[in-house]
Amino acid sequence: MELDFRKNPAILSNMLDVMADGVFTVDAQGHIVAWSTGAARITGYSSDDIIGQSCHILEGQNCKGFRVLTEFLDNPSPYPWGICNQECKVLGKDGRELYLFGNVSILRDEHGGVAGAVGTFTDLTAFILNNQKIAVLEEQTKSREAFQQLIGKSPGMQEVFRRLRLAAQSDVTVLLTGESGTGKELAARAIHTLSDRKDKPFFAINCSAIPETLLESELFGHVKGAFTGAIRDKIGVFQAADGGTLFLDEIGDTSPLLQLKLLRVLQEGEIRRVGDDRAIKINVRLITATNRNLQTLMAQGTLREDFYYRIHVFEITLPPLRERRADIPLLVNHFIEDNVKIFHREVHEIAQDALQRLQEYGWPGNVRELKNAIEHAFVTVQGHCITLWDLPPEVQKPSLHRSPPSTSSASLGPAEEAHIREALGQAHGNKTEAAKLLGVSRVTLWKKLKHLDLKSSP
Asked: Does domain 321-400 fall into CATH 1.10.8.60?
């Protein structure tokens, strides 16, 4: 049967409504007289919302829209082929900016006069926004101010990014060195994410946080009955990470006996669960990290020499924050954006004197301490701007802005000993207060005191 749209206009209406594109018509005065289902789906405006309204709504409401639509109706002669391929931006009913690609043609009556216009538009919002995101990522890559979750434009961080890329291209065993809080676990995750193992598991273990008696079982697993409390078989993280990456932080705190067992894993590619006489083949990429001087530990006899040379194949040193102060504004902005999402507060800037104080402070806790300082500010801030008085007390005090020596206990020297003695003197021997003055944890101070053989009073 032949379809005659002139005799059955409902067929034409149904055809327009099933189109993904939006279709609309306006009269000679610019009032919308027809609005398709596709137009409603794209903009959020129903036909009841829109019919009878002025076509100014398509001119953008402070956005770049069909800017010449009214002019076109008044004088179509400059546009003999209609408004073609008009790229425009309008506001949807929910306030979102919509990117549209449209065309408009004049409708004439039987005398050749302007009776109105018919327009179509295609929704390009998702396409445009995705391309904008790609452009942002490309620009970020060009500027090299961010690498995975690490941030920094300083020469030291640029070198870190370069070596991380090199490490990701092979299965070489990597040793990450640097003070606590410099982002060693983030660096390990970056290597894993960029490597061929990215679709396999990533596990991170802090060797100093697990008692020595339990660490072996945690790493290698155990069989039922291997020791008191072993009521069932358990796989260790080496087996769980098979095919992926295992990151062992604070590797310098492991015992020589455990180092020997780790050495066998690296050399033979197999593990033995505690209490099991059967070897299990594994394929795991190992990344280790430490904030201690491993050569000093070797000299002291607490680190096996053969183990050191097996894990020290490719070293990447993360610089302390005080050596890359140019990165502090970038990090501050990043942490502000993160905390806006967490706290749901409209805080988008930091006062100049507060930022200057952040750049002057010594940051013994490095990036982790800066992150905590911004989180502290979000608890106290009033309004949209972080002020100097929103920062933690130890950051506010000018007397504490000196950059302390390295927090690594293996690199302590006369300067740091004097610094610790001074803090203990100011705190009248109170270790907790001295730790606050130094900007370190009480446990870290205790380790330093033990290493230096200092008493709790100067």
From this structure: yes
